[in-house]
Structure formats: C-alpha cells, structure tokens
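Dear colleagues,

As part of the handover before I leave the project, I'm documenting each prediction I ran so the next person doesn't have to rerun anything. This entry is a single chain, and its sequence is reproduced below.
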Amino acid sequence: MHPARYTPDTFNPPPRPPKRRRLRVCLVILAVIMVAAGANRWANQRLWLNQITVASPRVPAAFDGFRILQLSDLHNRRWGAGSAELLALSASAQPDIIVVTGDLVDHRTGPLDEVTAVLRGLQAIAPTYYVSGNHEMHVGRVRELTMLCQSLGVEYLDGRQVTLVRGDGQVILMGMPDPIAYGEYLYEFPRYSQHLDEQMSACPANAFTVLLAHRPELMPIYAQAGLDLVLAGHAHGGVLRIPGYGGLLAPGQPIPARYTGGLHRERDTQLVISRGAGGSTLRINNPPELVLIELRRTD
C-alpha cells in the first residue's frame, strides 16, 4: 500500500494570522518590554533596604536581635548631596553596627570628599567597620583610606579583629583584605587562607565569629576555616538576576554564578552577599541595596 500523496489540491496549509492580529501581538510585546525596562530603570535609581535573618544556636543570648547594616560596592556612586539618601536609609534601619565590605572607591574617585561624608555620616549613626575590596587595592589608596578611617573613628579591619561586647556575650568581628593584598588573584589563595586560619586561631574558644570580606566565591575557604558568619559583596548581584535562581555573571565565578546575593550556607558557615549600592549601571532585576542582617539565637 503506497502512502498517501499530498498535492497542492489536497494539502491546505493553516491560514496565516491576519496582519492586524500580528501587529497587535507585536505591539503588546513591545509595550511589555517598555514597561519592564521603565520599571527596571525606576528600581535602579533608588536604594533599597534588604533584610536578612541569620539564625544560629551559637549566637550569644545577649546578641539575639543584634542588627548589622552592610554597605558594599558603592563604587563612587552618589546618593544625593553628601549621600543624604544613603545616610537617611541607613539611619532608618537602626543598626547596632555598620560594616563596609569593600569597593567604596574605584578608578573614578578623585578627592575623598564624598567618601569622607559617607563614612562620617555612617559613624554618626553607629560604630562603623571597613575592609578593602579589590578596587581599593587596584587604585592604590589603602593607606589613604586607612588614615581617613582613623581620623573619623571608623575601624579599618584589614587583617585585624575586634571583640564586640553586649551584656555577658561576645562576638568576634574580624576583617580580611582582598586577596590582591597577598599577591593572589584567581583560583589559588594559600597565603590568604593561612592568614585567615591565623586569625581564627586567635579567637577565644567557642566564640561566635563574623568575618568581613569582599569576595563571596571564597566560601569554601571560609567554611573550611570554621567561621560562623561571613559578610561579602563584589558580585554586584550577578548583573542579571533570574527569578527563582539568582544572578548570572560575577567576577571569579563560572556562568551561571553561584554566589551573587542573599543568604548561603556551607557546612556550619553562613554567608550574606550584598548586591552592592553602586557599580555597573547595567542591572537587570537587580536593584542596588543596603543589607540589614539580624542575628537570632535558636535552640
């Protein structure tokens, strides 16, 4: 039996949509794109406050409810005259301390007038702690920033640690400079790891430890060191954030990137990543933010 043959007389292709219908579909798609682009632009012109709870049985009872405000990757961006918008949002968060996790400046930064206004304003809100990112290293302004912090009462924690005391509880807050400080850039970080281990060995036994760092992709190193909590930035939110997944692009990470924002956990170490308050103007579903971390003690 031969298969049926289709001839122009027997085969009738489905009718094509009328031109007006195709035009309407195109107009609807264009309108959706324009609305989405407008909403994205609107969101990127505002600074948002993202709240994250870090729960652990190791949080001292006296630090239950302790609030840490994190600013990262400002990259010379101005939020109003004298960064008034940034400072107002910071004050509204009512933090117990404020931490800056790198890249406050970059190659576009001239005189440090705006940086001075930011740090002075933050220090007036709550005790402020700062660690350097890769851009502080690249532009060679670490010494200048260290002296500025000293003059303002801001703690520059590169390679140092302090003890936070509240009631009868203690938290060890330590900082690590960007690995560039050790001449390490990609993939291998032996000197960085060694210095971090030395800091950990100087901590009191069973102390709750918080590390200020810049690079989130070093999470395996942080977990290996046994830290309780790490606060980092650097990834700029992954540039393009996919709902339900997260960011796609981040320096030092494969595509799609793994560590770009929010709360992560590996072993007993928790990692909070700020999407940053400045950086690239290309941000899709990824508005700039401050992060408010609240410590909670669990049973």
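The longest helix spans residues 19-44. Residues 27-297 form a domain with the Purple Acid Phosphatase; chain A, domain 2 fold (CATH 3.60.21.10).

All the best with the project,
I.
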